[in-house]
Design brief:
CATH class of the largest domain in chain A: Alpha Beta
Radius of gyration of chain A: 20 Å
Order of helices and strands of chain A: EHEHEHEHEHEEHEHHHHH
Oligomer: homodimer
Structural class of chain A: alpha/beta
Number of domains of chain A: 2
Helix content of chain A: 40-55%
Largest interface: A-B, 67 and 67 residues
Strand content of chain A: 5-15%
Strand order of the largest sheet of chain A: 3-2-1-4-5-6-7-8
């Protein structure tokens, strides 16, 4: 049984999710209003069908919100304005704090909301990310069924709205802030001429992000996107009574890379951008 | 050729270094004044010889400072007061910022200072930590010779005072703050009932600290010691023009565990101590 899915708004992850749904014969609608040429090409390549937001909201049986985290509430608000009271499920799949998922659910009124989160790379070239799901069982089951037979694996983590998002943020707080730490540590060693020795130490520990200096420019290029996600993680930690200082500090550190949005830098350029003032460290 | 080494003040790392030197026939003096019974036993087991600080300073050809980082400057000051102008080398082997190494060198006047740092576990049971060294070549060569044939490996990183300490702090900023992050991330997931799912994600990445929850209570027990080291790393980063916010935040986070000094906790107790107020995270 194929269904109509509204995809809001396809970036690289969303387009790949859309392509997987297309392979199973589902119809995937997306809204090109105000989107870049790159996004249009990506949607076209993925076999998605362009439509206005009113049509998407009216026709979709499942709405899937997969966007930069900072846009998630606005997208839900846009949908809420147009909502006609169908039985569509709204899947909030972005890396946002549980309180925001709750606010989105509240804003959508009677529309059932599934809290979801993606861990892993976009499902292209055999990669198979995990889509974590949390909501009442009937609703999560519909999403499990939707992705059955695709490269998107699904995993229900219970019926508590926010649990999937909390899992995502908890994991990415470690993963992303470790990346920030790795950049800072390498910069410090490099400033004293002992960058190679640092990497030699790190290499003795398998899997250490420290050895992956090629990732430093990627962290810089993604800083604009990671910052809001990490600030949301701070909110999550505060709500759990846990210290949020590391997350605020990571966001503050990432903000130094604001001007590097999606840039192609080398390691030296990325570290240069990280330094506010290039003082002599001696 | 055996020499007289003054060890200030042997904790578990220092005692193990002393035992290695004893195995090569060197005389190792230590000062029991005001030290705990555990320290005395450890020094005795390692074959170290008790002596007053004036005797240690007068007789030692090499003085090795290996202590909690916060004590390093006081120890140097104590030695400086007693200094008789011999040709002894002072090895500052603690995890302190380069500016502090320089201050110690300045306070010791004509005494040659070798900047050093230990990476790895104490040299017992076949473990062989690396002692990084930075100073004028003649002085570092003496220390390389001193540890020749022991389980303490040596590695000269140049002649710039502070380079060895910078290497140590850069590495431990990553390693220790990642440990703090791992504890915080696990606590966040646990608060939403998805701790096991977090560990399952982390297990797919080899070497991730996230999987090692047994280490969370160890981090809590060591917080009193890691805090000052990480604050010094903040100073190092600031001097290099790099953002120090993550280090201050890590020290602030560790301070929540101040009351857990050397305690034997389980994971639940350690997380409980990390939470300032146990709010309901829903």
């Amino acid at each position: 049984m194929t269904v109509v899915v509204g995809l809001l708004h396809p970036g690289s992850m969303g387009a790949a999710f859309g392509a997987q749904l297309r392979l199973r014969g589902h119809t995937v609608l997306w809204c090109p209003d105000g989107r870049s040429d790159a996004t249009r090409r990506r949607a076209q390549d993925a076999g998605l069908r362009a439509a206005g937001l009113p049509e998407i909201v009216a026709r979709s049986e499942v709405m899937l919100s997969l966007c930069p985290p900072a846009a998630s509430e606005q997208i839900a608000a846009d949908v809420a304005e147009l909502r006609t009271g169908s039985e569509a499920v709204y899947v909030e799949a972005n890396a946002v704090a549980p309180f925001r998922v709750q606010r989105i659910a509240d804003s959508l009124g009677p529309t059932p909301v599934v809290d979801a989160a993606v861990v892993g790379s976009p499902p292209v070239g055999g990669k198979s990310p995990m889509l974590y799901l949390a909501a009442a069982a009937g609703h999560t089951d519909r999403i499990v069924e939707l992705f059955a037979g695709t490269d998107v694996r699904t995993h229900i983590v219970g019926d508590r709205l926010g649990a999937a998002s909390a899992l995502k943020l908890a994991y990415s707080s470690y993963q992303k802030v470790s990346r920030v730490l790795a950049a800072v540590a390498y910069g410090a060693a490099d400033a004293y001429g002992v960058g190679d020795e640092l990497l030699a130490i790190a290499a003795e520990r398998t899997g250490s992000y420290l050895v992956e200096t090629d990732y430093i420019p990627k962290t810089a290029a993604r800083a604009w996107r990671w910052g809001p996600e990490i600030e949301d993680t701070a909110a999550l930690l505060a709500a759990a009574g846990l210290p949020d200082a590391l997350m605020h500090a990571a966001a503050e550190t990432l903000a130094r890379w604001d001007s590097c949005k999606d840039a192609s830098l080398d390691v030296t350029e990325a570290l240069e951008a990280l330094r506010a003032e290039r003082d002599d460290p001696s």
